[in-house]
Structure formats: C-alpha cells, structure tokens
Design brief:
4 copies of one chain form a homotetramer. By secondary structure, chain A is mostly helical. Chain A has 9 helices and no strands. In chain A, α4 runs antiparallel to α5 and α5 packs antiparallel against α9. The structure holds a DNA duplex (21 and 21 nucleotides).
Chain lengths: 195, 195, 195, 195
DNA sequence: GATGAATGAGAGTTCATTCAT
DNA sequence: TATGAATGAACTCTCATTCAT
C-alpha cells in the first residue's frame, strides 16, 4: 500500500508537471516537490526523467491500442465504431485530462517527430485506423474512391484538433457537449458539412 | 549584401536545426556551425535563441494570417476559399518544408500549450477560420446546425494531420498528390465520406 | 552462528566487490546484493562503507605485521626469513586472492597516498623490513655498503610487482611456479642477475 | 598564447589536484579554482574529467614508451641501458613530481586493475622491459636461467617501490641521492645484495 | 536481527550568453 | 562586422546513510 501510494503520487505529480511545463521544462525537483516526496525517491522508483515520461506515454498508447483493437475486432455497426473511437478520446479528456494534454502537446508531436520509437507508435495507431476505414469501405459504408489513408487523417485530425482546442481552453466537457461534438464530427465525416 | 547573406544563412541553418532536433534540443552552436559562422555572430544579429525562434515562428504566422485575411476579404466562391486554404499549407510544405515541420511539431504544440503568446496566435488563426465558416453558413453553403467552431476544427484538423503525416514520412508532394489530397479533404468536408 | 554466517557473507561479498571495482566504484548495494542480504544489514553490522573497507584492510595489515614480527623474532637463518616473507605473499595470493588484489590495487596505493593512516601503516611495514635487513647486515650476510632502506625497497618491490602481475593476469599459482618465483627473487636479490 | 596559457594552467592544476586527492576525490571545481579559471572553461577545453585525466595519463605513457623504445634500439652497453631507465624515473620525479605521483598512486594501480586500456598499457611497458632483459641474456650479461619475465618485475619493482617511497615522504632528490639510489638498484640487480 | 523505502547533499556536465579583441 | 574564449547558473543523476517497521 504505502509503496504503491508513493509511486502513484509521483506519477500523478509527473502528469501535472509534464502537462504544465512540457517535458523539456519539467524539473525532477518540481515533480518530487509536487508529489511531496524527496528528490531521491523519484529516482528510486523510476530511474530517470526519461523513464518516468515513457511510462506515462506508454500507458497512453496501450490504452489507445487496446481500444482500437477492440473496435477492430468487434461486430458493432460501423458508425458505432467511429462513435466509440471519438468517445474514447473525449472520455480520456474527462477522466485523465493531464494524460491527454501531454499526448496532444508533447507525445504526438515532439517525441513523434524526433524519435524512432515515437514515430513507430504513431504509425501503428494510424495503421489500426486505416484497417477500420478499409472495413467501412468493404462493408459499402465508406466511399471507395477516397483512400483509407486520407479518410484516416481526416477523421483522426478532427478528433485531435477538437481535443487540442479543449485542452487549450481548459474547457469543461459536459455530457451535452460531448454528445454535440461527437455528432458533429460524425455527421461531417459521414455526410459532410454542406447545407 | 554580405550582411544579408550571413543573416539568411543563419536563418536557414536555424530552420534546419530546429526542425531536426526541436527547439529544446537545438544548440546555438549547432546553428552557428551549420551556418558556417562563429556563434558570436548569431548573437550579434539575433540576440538570443528565443528571438531567433520567434522570428521564424512570426514569419509563419504572418504568412498564415495574410493568407487568411485575403481569403476572408475575397469575393471568390466559398469552395474556392477552402481550396486556397488547403493549397496554402500544401504549397508551404513544398516550398518551405522546414518551416512547416517546425510549425506542426513545435509551434502549434509546445509553444502554443505553454506560452500565452503561442495560445493567442493560435486562437487568432482559429478565429479567422471561424469567420470564414460563418460566411459559408450565411451564404447557405454550410450546414447551420453545426457550430462554426466545430466546422473549423474538423476542416483544419484534416489539413494539419495530413501535413503531419507528410512531414513524418518526409514524403515528396507531387502536383498530382496535391490535387488528390485537396479534393479528398474538400470532398469529405463538404459531402462526407459515405459511399 | 547465524550472526557470524551473515557477517562473513558480507565480508566475502565486500572482498569480491572491492576487488572487482575498487573502493571508489564499489556500491554498498552491490555488496549487499552479492551477499544476499538487505543493505540495511550491511549498515547494521558494519556502520559504513569506510568501516567495512578498513576492517578488510586492517586484517591484511595485521596478518602482515604478525608474519613480520615472527620473522624478526625468529632464530631462523637469514635466507630462510626472506623465503618466509616471499612465501607469505604467495600463500596469501593462493588463499585469499581477493584480499591481496585489494592490497596491491587499492591499499598500498590510493589509501596510502591520500590518508595519514594509510601512510603510517605502510611505513610501519617498511620499518619492520628494514629491521630484518639490518639484521642481515649485522650477521655479515648482506652488504653493509647498501643502506637497509635501499635493500628494503628492492626486496619488497620485487615481491609486490610479482604479485601485481599475477593479479593482473589472474594467473593460477602452482606449487612449482611458487618455488620458481621464490628462488628467482631470492637469487637475484642475494646474488644478482648477472650471468 | 593566451589559449595555450589557460590550457596549461588547467593541466597544471589538474596534476596538482589529482595528485593530492586522487582521481575519485578530485573535484572539477577544485581544478578550475586552482587554475584560476571558470568551471565551464575546463569543459570547454577538455570535455570531461575522464578526458582530462586520460590526457595526463597518456602523456606519461608516451614519455615512458618513448624512452623504452630509445633504449631498446640504442647500441649502448647493457648496464647503461638499465641506468638510463632508472634515471628516467628519477628525472621525472625531479621534473614532473605530480605526474609521477599520479602514476604510482593512481595509474599503475587503479586504472590498470579496473580497465582494459590500463591493463594493455601496463603490459606493453612490461613487454618492452622484457625485450631488454632478453637482449641482456643474449649478450651473455644476464643469467639465462632466470626468465626475462622474472627479471623484469624484480628490476622494475625496485624502481617503482623506490619512487613510491620518495613520493610518500615527499623527499627531495638531490643529485647525490640519485646517484646512490641508481647504483644501489643496479648493484643489487646485477651483483646481488650479499656481503 | 533484518528489511528496503526514503533522504538529500554533492558531483559531473551542459549550454545560452557575454565580452575582449 | 566577426570571432570564439570564457562564464556560471541550472539541471540530472548517484549513492552513502538513516529509520520506521
């Protein structure tokens, strides 16, 4: 218990500090202070700043991959799959706001652009998205004239940008707003924005 | 002349180094070496790392705002405005690849999330986008049931994600691919992805 | 019993770790792990890294002084005394290889050069050596023209360097090699290396 | 000039500090302070503590190898070669006391015992010594019954131990003492210590 | 006796920036 | 204009040691 407590306190503190300052400007001393533990304990448990950050990042990707695999394998109707993907992001925004902030501001950018590992993770996610888009096309639901590749970045881009704006504004996300956003994204993606 | 030469060499070197390593990991010594000048000279002309970076960032935003203002004021048909916005990003990818790489990997993320200045710039761009979306709604071209806010992040998200993927893959962008991407984004945005 | 067991396991582990890494690079955690005990226990028994090291060093010096005092007091023939001194080092190499490795690589150097205590111990040994050399001169066996001081460092230098080379090469020391080395050192020291 | 001045001041300061405290306890801050330069300048020129130390160590080995090669190649009488080798160590003690102190207290021990590089350097020196001993045997000057290996460590051990004692006592080495020590070592090595 | 979580002073190193030339 | 030597604050990480259990 005591052990897990402190470990979790450090992880939580790290989530906050990484979100507030970004990886580069986050200080291990800040994290320790925020967690209410000594400097050395952070190293005792996590070894280095990079390891601590990677642990957080990893947990994000694992959640994301898990959800995507589930949707890919499920028998739900196609639209429902899209809704579930959107909901996953919105739910994470509600339940783990620091985690998703770090994702949109740090992970999906800097680390993706400047490390092999980051790039590979991103591409894996994109690949899972594409699989679902291909399925939509094969089921006759999506337009086959548009490449799955293009469909992926339009769909995902809409979600990511929405989340980014929420994070930037630190706006609260009520159930109602969740529904409206989901239906807006889904509607435009499927039926277009035209009047 | 000699003065401008060296200044430009420094700017070009900075573009490369910031793209390759990101702001945090870019070294002033790297930039000076890449530019082939002493690193006192970088300070002589630009004062500090931050100023140098801001200069680059500023040039990006100014280009972007200029384009958006132009579209906003123009009498073109609505679809053409959207095409022009998409083209602006794609053209920049072709002509100033380092600049747009820095934008997607650094500016629109880290600096946006962690500085007031960055946030303000981003919101200004979003506001210009929204103005155009509102215009589309008022002209009866866009669906009024969807908020201009939502329309903005869907449209812009598609573009940004496409650019991100191009940057990540360092893929060459031929005229043909430009056209296909533009029409895919436009088609899905206006008419949806459904079969 | 249990108590002595663990204490000895710690001492043995310390001997290994100090030999492998040297005092400066030896970690208390390494020693505890090697001994198979928690590292609180190392402190419980030995108080500090320095105390633990000193204990080992002390045991070496005590053995050495004991042997030297014995030889000094004994009525053996002079050559036999020299043989016994040489044999003491060689036997220790066989029976306590870690201990003598620590001696040649750490004790007789770093600690001797950088602490008062180390210096004093070394000089005490040298003084005992000199006493024996003086005895040899007085018995008419050693050349009185050469100072006991000089005789000491030539005799001891040969032994120490031989041991050093053995330690470096981690060479096994058979009975036969022991004899050959002993007789070589003795022969050169007494009769010279000339043809 | 200015450049070399500071570099040399740092090297000199490093020689002093490494001698006084040993590698492990030497502080880069001490070296900078002693040299009268800023902390960063030591890194500007030398990159790291290890590089700085290695530079010093390297200079020692190069001097030593140079001398040994010269003796090996020369046509001098055999005894003269031995005298020159002894003199090299004694001269270095007079002219570069810090360097030789570092050698006997740090290099020829810790680094030799705990690094591949150190071991290799030591063995190279031993090999050069052996070559000279073999030459002595072939010229009929040294006893062929004693292996060149044994001859080497007896001869070198005497020198090293003498130097060690000098270093420990910080004794001044007059011309007269140099001569006495040289002749003592040479006499015992060639003709033995017997009366 | 025995554990290992917890501490924090202290070390090496980096790098933006300054400044004498 | 142009150089690069020189600075030192700031940061990450290590590890001997303590102490509650």
């Amino acid at each position: 218990m005591a052990r897990n407590d402190k470990q979790e306190m450090i992880i939580d503190a790290a989530l906050e500090v990484f979100r507030e300052k970004g990886y580069a400007n986050a200080r291990m001393a800040d994290i320790a202070r925020r967690a209410g533990v000594s400097y050395g304990l952070v190293y005792h448990y996590f070894g280095s700043k990079e390891v601590l950050f990677d642990l957080i990042v990893e947990s994000w990707w694992n959640d994301l991959y898990g959800m995507m695999e589930t949707e890919k394998a499920s028998n739900s109707r196609f639209r429902e799959k899209l809704v579930n993907i959107i909901q996953f992001f919105l739910d994470t925004y509600v339940n783990k706001p620091n985690l998703i902030s770090i994702f949109v501001s740090e992970v999906c950018r800097s680390s993706v652009y400047h490390t092999e590992e980051g790039l590979a993770r991103f591409l894996k996610f994109f690949s899972l998205c594409e699989d679902i888009m291909v399925e939509g096309q094969e089921r006759g639901i999506l337009n086959k004239e548009i490449s799955a590749h293009h469909l992926t970045y339009i769909f995902y881009g809409a979600i990511e940008t929405f989340i980014s704006v929420m994070v930037l504004g630190r706006e609260p996300l009520t159930k109602k707003r969740q529904e409206r956003a989901t239906s807006a994204i889904l509607h435009v993606f499927m039926d277009g924005a035209k009047a």
